[in-house]
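Comment thread on ticket #2218

A.B. wrote:
> Attaching the input chain for the structure job we discussed in standup.
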Amino acid sequence: MATSFKELPLPVQAGAYLALALVIFVAVEFMPGSPINAVRRDRDQATAQAEGLKKEVQALETFDRQQPQLKADLEATERELDALKTIVPEDKEVDEFMRLLYDTSKASNVSIRRLTSKAVTPRDFYYELPFELEVDGSYYQVLEFFARLSHLSRIINVGDIEFSNIEDAKGKKYPVAAGTSVTGTFMATTFFTAGGAAAPANASAKQATPPGKH
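C.D. wrote:
> Ran it. Output below, let me know if you need it in another format.
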C-alpha cells in the first residue's frame, strides 16, 4: 500500500526538502544564463575595474607628491645644460671666441699680433676649432695670459707653443712695447657641438689691430 509523503517520518521529509533545495540551488547557480551568474560576473568586473582605478589613483597621488622634486630636478638639469653650452657651445661662435682671446690678452698686457683660424676637426661628439696665435709680451705677462685662458668659461686648450727671445721679432712692421721679452706662436683650440657646422673654417688670417698692446 502506497504511503503519502506527509505520512513519512519528519526526518525523511526534512531530508527530502533539503535535497530538493540543493538541486534547485545547483540548477540556479550553474545553469547557463542564470541571473545569479550574470550578477556575479558583473560584480567581478566591477571589482576588477575598482582595483584598477585604485592603482591609478595611487600612482597619481605618488606623482603628485613627487612633482615638486621632479620639477626641481628638471630645473637643475636645465641649468647644467646651460652651463655646458657655455663651456662647449652648440655653434662655433667665432666672434665671441676671438673677443675672449683679445679681452684676455688685454687684461694680461700681452699683444696678439696674428690670429689665424685653422680647419675644423670633427670628433665623435664634438668639433675642434683651432686658431694659431702670434703674441708677444714679458715672460710673466705671457704666463698670466695662459693662466687666464685656463679659467675662462669656454674650454680652450693651448698647445704647440713655440716662443723665443724678442730679438727674433726685430724687423717686423709693428713696434714692440717696452718690457717685452718674448715672442712666439701657439695653438688655441676650442670646441663646439653643432653637427651642421663641420665645414672647415679655412684659414683666413685675422690680424690683431691696432698693433700696440691689446
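A.B. wrote:
> Thanks. Noting for the ticket: Residues 196-214 have pLDDT under 50 and may be disordered.
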